[in-house]
Fold each of these.
Amino acid sequence: MFVRIFRPDKVIPVIQKMIKKEKELGPQYIVPPPFDMEKSFSDSSNKVPIIIVLSPGADPMNELLKLAGQMKARVDSISLGQGQGKIA
């Protein structure tokens, strides 16, 4: 509570530091796993689509185009507001 009151900018780094040092937890609870487009595609179907929620700076377009090239699939682009959306 002390950190939250006097240094709100340090709350997340302090929590991350505590999690990293905890025996039962560790760094694997802080670092997100890398996104695997091929695995996501193999888990999907026409009834189970892939939904990608983007955060600022994230752009999976290159991975999508690479996978489409490997599978010889056509990719059509549609605009979804400020960003770009792709449908394979």
Amino acid sequence: MILLYTFFASFIYSFLVALGIVLGASVFAGIGAIINNHPPLKTMLDMASSIKIWAVAAAMGGTFNSLEIIEKGLFKGELKSIIKQAAYIVATLWGANMGYKLINLIKRCGDTWLK
């Protein structure tokens, strides 16, 4: 029971860290765009698109730790560790993509309100 709780807690942390990295980087890029007199929504969307893979790597705690766990699972036959790492990777991908979709939603809402 406790192991299942820690798995879901880590799953949620991975999701939210990736989401926060994408949203935070996009918001601060938008602030920088305002300071530099560039279009903020376009800059935010470009940043969200380009930072997704870095958000996944950062939320996973660096890629080497995950790769070591997957290697141990493959070569030592620990299927459970491979499944857990795959779930964490899916959570971080989902969080990073959710952040991108939220920035895209902001842009679409802005386009709708300006018409």
Amino acid sequence: MSFLSEFREFALKGNVMDLAVGVIIGGAFGKIIDSLVKHVIMPIVGLAGGSPDFSKISAGPVQIGSFIQTCVDFAILAFCIFLMVKAMNTARKRFEKPAAPATPPPPPPSEVYLKEIRDALVKK
């Protein structure tokens, strides 16, 4: 098998394509959540507790504010994603059709033969 055909087989596998779609959708979804945090949630935090921009905080010559801002953004982002996943799971459970009850497996042939013999003996 040539190098090119091996690469084509690898690149066109379903898992690779699913991963590519997941990464692209995840990147777009990340932008939505980032915008939610920056433009909706942080201004509300700013109204409740002062300036929403922690990046100006410093400890002497060390500028630790950007790190604090990133940590706050991450915590809010993780919480928002948690709420969205929880809502999706709840909706999925609500709209899923209940599974059909499983039919019992047929009895083994020996059991069928024994029942037939029993019924024949009872009739005599």
